[in-house]
Amino acid sequence: MAISPGPAANPAPLREVMSLFATGVTVLSVGGEHIHGMTANAFTSVSLEPPSVLCSVAHSAVMHKAILTAGHFGVSIMGAGQEGLARFFADKQRPLGPPQFADVDWSPGPRTGAPLLEGSLAWLECELSEAYDVGDHSIFIGDVVGSSRGDGQDGLLFFSGGFQRAASTSR
């Protein structure tokens, strides 16, 4: 195995290597005055006690300001059949504000009002507890204040630059 150093300012080698790490796909959301949704795969659990998760969002993303302003966010964990929604919320050309949810089935989270997408595998509602700037992104730590599970079984993954299906075993 040869590890070749790359120029520190060139993100291409990191992007290539990280494409080999399979991640789940989520849609982050904020409700209210700054309603917004964004597909994210930089998401993971942090702690069970207290229950917390993290997501990483670029400083340039609309979602960055939305989370900081609202102080909370929702997470819809995408099922295998939701690739279209994941692509929609990843599209920088989609409408912003309320129009981006006009043709999407969703319900406001009971704790935060954040849009939670119908048909997802599971949902979380989080109160923002910490934010750390790292390079061109912020890492947002959210305390989980609500969660629920849907009926779906197969997950949506992102691997090798594309969406993939993660087949579940029986529950």
Note the topology.
Layout: H1 12-18, E1 23-24, E2 26-30, E3 36-40, E4 43-48, E5 51-58, H2 62-70, E6 72-77, H3 83-90, E7 106-108, E8 115-117, E9 122-134, E10 137-149, E11 155-159, E12 162-166
Antiparallel strand pairs: 1-11, 2-3, 2-6, 4-5, 5-10, 6-9, 7-8, 9-10, 11-12
Keywords:
171 residues, mainly beta, three-stranded antiparallel β-sheet, single chain, 3 helices
Structural class: mainly beta
Q: Uncertain segments of ≥5 residues (pLDDT<50)? A: none
**Helical residue percent band:** 10-25%
First-last Cα distance: 39 Å
How much β-strand is present in the residues?
A: 35-45%
General description of the model:
The termini are far apart. The protein has helices spanning about 10-20, 60-70, 85-90; strands at about 25, 25-30, 35-40, 45-50, 50-60, 70-75, 105-110, 115, 120-135, 135-150, 155-160, 160-165. Helix content is about 15%, strand content about 45%. It is mainly beta and about 170 residues long. The strands form three sheets. It has a seven-stranded antiparallel beta sheet.
